[in-house]
């Protein structure tokens, strides 16, 4: 890891930071939106569905776009779109207007994790593979920042002003991150992308540029690169049309690209199980976390009705949410350490399964025994700690399972399932009968527990294995 790689670690971390900054930011505005626009506590949860709709479109579009225009365009533009439409939503005059602008904002946010994670992986030395797990530390930092801003702006202002000031503040912060990426740092295009487009000379130039930034020298030349390429492998044309690139990307989800993921019993079982885990976690995670501010607003009193307006959060509730966010940060640090431990109970698979089980158990405890603000705080802190371990390992473990030729298809399907089921979660939370503060959490616990059972059955452990 040289200077350039560490700079990229920070700038790619901005994407993870912004993803959770806005995901939690939307959640924190729900009580205020309910109070200002007269939307019931359960119906206002459709606001989160609006953001997830944008996330679905964004993750698909920017995944394709990064293969057409390169990583640099998506890397810079996603944060700009997020900032522009995020700030615009603060000036909406109706709940419907807020939802529409949240869709547009989510479209920008949706490109952060797939593009930034892939970009960092393509510049990451094999010896530093655990840093891909450590990259997830930016995720709880985004939540922490969002909770602190909400505590300051929303808790100390009228309902119709506080959430607007809060959204403007995190929008300006996102715009600053865009400025740092675009103005203060020159991002080299990914050599892997350049090689995939047949642009060997540019790939060699990038390697030399990175070596210079890291105060190192490299022996790589275009002639040496050509010499190590398998002559039997057909060369791509130096430039591919947008249509051909789009067709190639869509073809990655065809049977010809999916079928190799099931060419052996072991790989097929691992593929099916990891997709199952992504889908169940994708629905279970937002059923609890997207509405945690609403749960805090009741202080453990499970009495919300279908038509009741959400209670405005007290200063204590915002404080508890900030504490929960702080406790989540060490979880990512522990995950980065545990994934490479040689204990039979840890490594990638063991750490993932244990953290997921703890998460499921404490979701059940949150409903059963979270009857006071203090008990809710305790259970949500343990939940945040374990879930950050879970997601940190999951994002690193998944691409390592799949062989390189079909890694894009395998991770692409996993990401799609995660976003698609996440879109369904707020709809369920708003429409399922019964108590709006307990039933969604019970369902979340069941889904996370199902993911744990799937993780225990995954037959592959990638700890210590060279990344292909």
From TrEMBL:
Is the keyword Secreted in the record?
no
Membrane-protein topology? Multi-pass membrane protein
GO-annotated cellular components: membrane
Transmembrane residue ranges: 44-64, 73-95, 101-124, 131-154, 166-188, 267-288, 321-339, 351-371, 441-460
One GO MF annotation is: transmembrane transporter activity
Q: Which UniProt keywords apply?
A: Membrane, Transmembrane, Transmembrane helix, Transport
Keyword Lipid metabolism among record annotations: no
Name the InterPro entries for this protein.
MFS, MFS_dom, MFS_trans_sf
Please report which protein family the annotation says this sequence is part of.
Answer: Belongs to the major facilitator superfamily.
PANTHER family to which the protein is assigned, alphabetical: MAJOR FACILITATOR-TYPE TRANSPORTER HXNZ-RELATED, SYNAPTIC VESICLE GLYCOPROTEIN 2
Q: What is this protein called?
A: Major facilitator superfamily domain-containing protein
Phylogenetic placement of the source organism = Eukaryota, Fungi, Dikarya, Ascomycota, Pezizomycotina
